Amino acid sequence: MTLEARHAILDALLAVLDEEHAIGLMDHRKAKKAPLTPLSTKILLKQLRLCPNANEAVEEMINRNWTGLKADWLLKPQHKTGRRNFVDAALDRMNGHGTESVFVDRRTPERLSSEQQRPGFDAADIRGGVEGYPGSSRH
Question: Cβ contacts of residue 78 below 8 Å, gap of 6+?
């Protein structure tokens, strides 16, 4: 790529990013052996403009080792179904949040209200629920 083309790409990126992030993005893409071209820059800028903070979007892109980006990857909620599983409830319980706990048999998670819970820490009950699955152990 010519020096003139690199400057044109940098100028286009500077319309959305600060200089540090623009140069960092160009270096990242070059290191990934996917250098920015005029067309790939145009496509990427379209997505960066949809992000609330383009500089933070580039940081996330670099942190995740992505060469491209879609704004909705950063804007979508983490739990698509809205349902919680036993791991979510167990983490809440261990962090002192919520009033429910999860005790599981070999296959089915069961939600128990705080009145139905056994005294003590729930980790043994959670481990018991994954017993028999690959990677489980009995220490």
Answer: none
pLDDT digits (tens, 9 = 90+) for 71-104: 988 876 555 555 666 676 677 777 665 554 444 4
Specify the pTM.
Answer: 0.54
DSSP-derived secondary structure letter, 121: -
Do 113 and 93 meet the contact criterion of CB atoms below 8 Å apart?
A: no
**Secondary structure in 3-state letters for 74-112:** HHCCCCCCCCCCHHHHHHHHHCCCCCCEEEECCCCEEEE
Given phi > 0 = left and psi -120 to 50 = alpha, else beta, which region is 31? alpha
> What whole-number distance in Å separates Cα of residue 16 and Cα of residue 11?
9
Both structure tokens of 50: 């949809």
How many residues are recorded in the chain? 139
- What does residue 109 show for φ and ψ, rounded to 5 degrees? -70, 145
